[in-house]
Amino acid sequence: MFLVKLTRYRWFYGRIHRMRASFRAACAPFIEDIEKLQREVDNLYRRADTASEEIHRDRLLDIAQQVGDQLEEQRQDAEEALMLLRKAFVVATYHFWERGAQRFAPHKQKKPNHHALVAALRGASIVVDEQGLEELRLLVNCLKHNSNDARTLRPTQ
User: Fold this and answer.
1) Which percentage of the chain shows pLDDT scores above 90?
2) Which of the residues 76, 77, 149, 153 could staple to 141 if both were Cys, CB 3.0 to 4.6 A apart?
3) pLDDT digit string, tens, across residues 115-127
4) Cβ neighbours of residue 30 under 8 Å, at least 6 residues apart?
5) Is 2 exposed, middle or buried (0-12, 13-18, 19+ CB in 10 A)?
């Protein structure tokens, strides 16, 4: 029985590791785009600052401003895509946890809810971060259903 649990834990943590690696790999192009765009804008302004003639400097500053505006739009697009990706991974991570919890802990319900899964894991002597999982559950509900759970995550002051 111990070997079965150990194998399941290895499987679960292996999947978590692969999800983390997948998330980082999926984010990398957007992060690279954002960094590249920032470097391009910085280079244009640096060239304008070091221009020898005032007319040339003014022209470079005009170009830098125009290109900077375009690059800022592209940057915002990349940041929006990155945020969408983060949201998708949050939802996927929670659903992965739900499936894993159902596999590792016996439960009585056909479709157990979050609290039943936590109780089943606790009953199987599996340690869980209940507060962290509750925050993750609330966040997923906010992302999927635009629910009022946001107030629980961050109460208004």
Assistant:
1) 16
2) 149
3) 999 988 888 888 8
4) 78, 79, 81, 82, 85
5) exposed
H or E element that contains 59: helix 54-104
Summarize pLDDT for 61-97 with one digit per residue, the tens: 787 788 778 888 888 898 899 999 999 999 998 998 8
**Measured between alpha carbons, how far is 51 from 60 in angstroms, rounded to an integer?**
8
Distance CA 119, CA 25 (A): 34
Q: What is the pTM of this model?
A: 0.69
CA nearest to 81, candidates 32, 118, 129: 32
| Helix (H) or strand (E) segment spanning residue 134 | helix 130-145
